[in-house]
Every structure is written in structure tokens, then in C-alpha cells.
């Protein structure tokens, strides 16, 4: 019973951290942008990678050097953990690319959070050779979690919308503080702005109209990468004898390479964007990266306490978007606009999560934990 509580507490940390990830990153993107209505992409992504490097590389390296930990370095463990980190970073980039190609969160995120746990479950079942142990109640719980998460995302309160004319007039009024007798001049200033924005929207619609396939490819990339993240990380941890710090360090290194080195090079060379470094935007983006890294540690801890990817990851993917949606609703002051279907989706997630936990396939350690692995450095197991 104590082990189950530790597992729940561990992936509960991940659900909370990854649920707040999107909210904080979105705010960082908004503040770093220098173009109204456009969100920065590369600079916030660099901040995410830097936070991962601090929490997922520097901190584990210091702890390993000073305190040590059970487990050992192995080629298989390093390779699988680096691959897991690459999957996580590429998935995050895939979300950004889906939005860049014209995708909207209203359908991108439901597809991602609906598809990733399915990929995770089938990959885990295949690797652990537990197909015969999967019962109908477990599958029913898994379907309930997925459907509940999608329902929550689809029926969350929409942000208040202003017409294009209202937004433009409001912007002019705030910037210039004109008197009432200057209303005609204000309208004259607003009219060309409205026309320019309408033309821009038409151009964007024409541009993105031919990119629907790229949207789908980006979404499919995220589903595949984030769906494989948990099982691959579990394999890496098992190959390093259930070490916690070593897999996290590898994940951090992969994030640093993909989320810091690559976008930084793009910013300096071929792909500049309308954004700037500023204190507030950097702080929000670093907080998003910290949430992502803490979430990764929570998953590692859940695996260390005996959790399995077959139910840990579906619960994370089911719970994180619910936390994200509630955080958004609270920040926007829309608690009074909650749709009944939103509450129904939340109930589905909770009930499905309980069924997944209770009826998850039982069994011994994964094949990676039982097969001998070639150690890079022998070191005595130490309590952490």
C-alpha cells in the first residue's frame, strides 16, 4: 500500500508540473514577442532547455559526485535515456511547429493528449510481453481517461473574444488618450489598421491553407515522441539498475542539445524572429522548463517505486491537460462559464484513472531489468 501511495504521489507531481507547463510557457512566449498577436518560439524554447540543463544535468551531476546513488552507468541505459530526452524535446518542438503551420490548440492538444497514451500503452504492452494480461476493465479505464481528457479540452471555456474593430479602437485609445472631440480623427487612424489586419489574416489563411498536411505531420510527430517517452525512459532506468539521477541527467543533456544548441544557432543564423530577451519573459519561460524537468523527475520516481509506463503515462497524459485547463480558467476568471460536458470529462478522467490503477497488468520486472547490461563504471550501490 505504501508503494502505491509513493507511485501516486510521484506521478501526481508530474501531472501538476506538466499541467502548469503550457500556461507558463505561453506567458513567456507572449512577453518575449515584439509583434502584437504573434508568440515567440525559439527564445522561450532556449529557456526551457536551459532550465532542463540546470535541473536535469547540473543538479544530478553534483549529487552523483558528492553522494552517489545505487545503479551504474551502462551503454544501453545511456542510449535509451538520451533517446527518451530526445523524444521529449522533439515532441515539444512538434507542438510549436503545429502552431506555426496554422494549427489551433482547440484541435492540436486534444489529438496529442488523446493519441500519446495509446501509443504509450501499446508500446509498453509489446515490450513487456503482457498482451495476455491486459483485461477489458483496464482497456475501458484507458479509454475513459483518453475520452475524458479530450472532452475537458474541447469543452473548456473559450477566452473572451473582441471584434477586430473593438481591439483596434481599444489599442488606439490606450496608446494616444485622445479627447472625445477627436473621435473622427481616431476613426481615421483605426480604419487603415483594420484593413491592414484583414489583409494580413487573408494572406495567412491562404498561406496556411496548403499546410494542413504539415500540421498533421507535426501532430503525429508529437504523438509518437511523447507516447514513446515513458516506455523508453523506463527501459533506460531499468538498464541502469533503477538509478534515478543518471536517466534524468541523460534527459537533460538531450534537451540541452535539441532545445538550446539548435534554436540558438537558428536565431543567430537562418531563422531570426520578432522576439527579444527580457527579464519577465525569460523568467516565465525558465519556470516552464523547470516544470518540465520536475515532471520528468516525477516520472522517474514513479518508476523507481514500482510504477509501470502502461498506467503511469496514461494517467499523466489524462491528468496534465485537466490541470492545464483549470489553471487557464482560473487565470482568465471563467469559473462561472464551465460547461456541463467539461465536468463530465473531468469525471471520466478520475473514474478512468481509478480503473487503470486497479486493473493494470501485474508482473515481474521488464526484460531490460533482467537482462545483463554492460557497465561503463562499476560502483557499489549506495542508498540515496
UniProtKB/TrEMBL annotation:
Listed name of the protein: EamA-like transporter family protein
Domain of life: Bacteria
Entry keyword set: Membrane, Transmembrane, Transmembrane helix
Statement: the UniProt record of this protein carries the keyword Disulfide bond: no
Chain ranges passing through the membrane: 43-65, 77-101, 107-127, 134-155, 212-233, 245-267, 279-303, 310-335, 341-360
Amino acid at each position: 500500500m505504501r508503494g502505491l501511495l509513493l507511485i501516486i504521489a510521484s506521478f501526481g507531481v508530474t501531472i501538476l508540473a506538466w499541467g502548469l507547463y503550457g500556461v507558463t510557457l505561453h506567458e513567456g512566449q507572449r512577453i518575449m514577442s515584439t509583434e502584437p498577436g504573434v508568440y515567440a518560439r525559439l527564445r522561450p524554447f532556449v529557456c526551457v532547455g536551459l532550465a532542463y540543463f540546470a535541473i536535469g544535468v547540473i543538479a544530478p551531476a553534483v549529487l552523483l559526485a558528492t553522494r552517489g546513488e545505487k545503479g551504474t552507468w551502462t551503454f544501453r541505459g545511456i542510449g535509451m535515456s538520451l533517446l527518451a530526452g530526445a523524444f521529449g524535446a522533439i515532441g515539444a518542438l512538434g507542438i510549436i511547429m503545429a502552431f506555426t503551420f496554422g494549427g489551433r490548440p482547440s484541435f492540436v492538444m486534444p489529438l496529442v493528449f488523446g493519441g500519446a497514451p495509446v501509443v504509450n500503452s501499446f508500446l509498453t504492452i509489446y515490450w513487456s510481453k503482457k498482451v495476455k494480461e491486459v483485461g477489458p476493465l483496464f482497456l475501458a479505464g484507458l479509454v475513459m481517461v483518453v475520452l475524458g481528457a479530450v472532452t475537458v479540452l474541447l469543452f473548456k471555456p473559450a477566452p473572451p473574444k473582441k471584434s477586430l474593430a473593438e481591439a483596434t479602437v481599444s489599442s488606439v485609445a490606450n496608446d494616444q488618450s485622445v479627447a472625445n472631440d477627436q473621435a473622427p480623427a481616431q476613426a481615421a487612424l483605426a480604419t487603415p489598421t483594420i484593413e491592414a489586419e484583414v489583409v494580413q489574416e487573408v494572406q495567412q489563411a491562404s498561406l496556411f491553407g496548403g499546410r494542413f498536411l504539415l500540421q498533421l505531420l507535426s501532430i503525429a510527430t508529437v504523438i509518437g515522441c511523447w507516447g514513446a517517452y515513458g516506455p523508453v525512459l523506463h527501459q533506460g532506468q531499468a538498464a541502469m539498475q533503477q538509478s534515478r539521477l543518471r536517466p534524468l541527467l541523460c534527459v537533460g543533456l538531450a534537451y540541452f542539445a535539441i532545445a538550446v544548441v539548435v534554436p540558438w544557432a537558428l536565431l543567430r543564423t537562418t531563422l531570426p524572429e520578432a522576439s527579444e530577451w527580457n527579464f519577465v519573459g525569460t523568467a516565465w519561460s525558465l519556470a516552464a522548463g523547470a516544470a518540465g524537468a520536475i515532471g520528468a523527475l516525477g516520472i522517474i520516481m514513479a518508476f523507481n517505486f514500482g510504477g509501470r509506463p502502461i498506467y503511469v503515462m496514461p494517467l499523466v497524459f489524462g491528468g496534465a491537460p485537466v490541470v492545464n485547463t483549470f489553471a487557464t480558467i482560473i487565470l482568465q476568471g471563467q469559473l462561472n462559464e464551465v460547461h456541463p460536458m467539461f465536468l463530465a470529462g473531468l469525471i471520466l478522467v478520475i473514474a478512468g484513472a481509478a480503473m487503470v490503477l486497479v486493473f493494470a497488468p501485474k508482473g515481474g520486472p521488464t526484460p531490460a531489468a533482467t537482462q545483463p547490461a554492460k557497465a561503463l563504471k562499476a560502483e557499489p550501490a549506495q542508498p540515496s
